[in-house]
What does this fold into?
Amino acid sequence: MRVIFMGTPDFAVPTLKAIRAAGHEVVAAYSQPPRPAGRGKKLQPSPVHLAAEEMGVEVRTPVSLKPQEEKDAFAALNADVAVVAAYGLLLPVAVLEAPKLGCLNVHGSILPRWRGAAPVQRAILAGDATTGVTIMQMEKGLDTGPMLLKRTTRIDEKTAGELTDEIAAMGAEAMVEVLSRLPHVRAEVQPIEGVTYAHKIDKAEARIDFSKGAEHIERQVRAFAPRPGAFFELRGERIRVLEADVIGREGATATVLDDDLTIACGYGAIRPTRVQRAGKPAMETEAMLRGYPIPAATEIR
It folds into this structure.
């Protein structure tokens, strides 16, 4: 089939590659425009942009798809289907309806739970036991379209980074399966019960509040690893916690309980096992403490 691909981050790249490997013709790849990145703030193309260029696929990076000329250019590609994976721009109705078989989305949750921008992080924060991926026929509403295929996985102790990579691979396989059976895939209307929304992550959410329970904080650490990284501040410096264990100890909230950086929470305690100081590489907590001791009884604000 003639496929338009629409995606931006690393999450979308496996689907792009899988579609191409399955023999479909990717007639164009849409991605968000290059953004300033790195110390020099040079414009950096997105992961999908780079992957598509390597394949020799035309890349388009409009700021918006609302202008009529953009809608016309999209329709002129005469695609059978558009595949969308974390694109990041609103698709007008004219765009949704332009491909013969519509637009299909790779969504990183089991719909209707966690519609929206940050389904992986929200599932971890909520303590969900499972999540997965849904291939969905797109419509005007936010992740409200009929479902074509689902795949599930256990969350266990995975970080958001690990879980995102796993779901990205699952989504790529699922999308190829759906494309192989179009237009004869049976669609399932999303149930009204169980709808939740995965609102975009605010960086302020990454600050650790030690008045919360230890299990909540451990989920927070995993939900924000590797980015933006859950953190606390000490001596005027931000310390990111990339991995942590729940410890069955009690003490004064936000107080270091021992020389291993076990920190008392509202209930229980956590022990960061991998951390990162500002401007420093990530390291095991033991290694950081050798050069930056944080003794017992230190209070963390």
Q: What stands out?
A: Residues 3 and 26 are 5 Å apart (CA to CA). The radius of gyration is 22 Å.
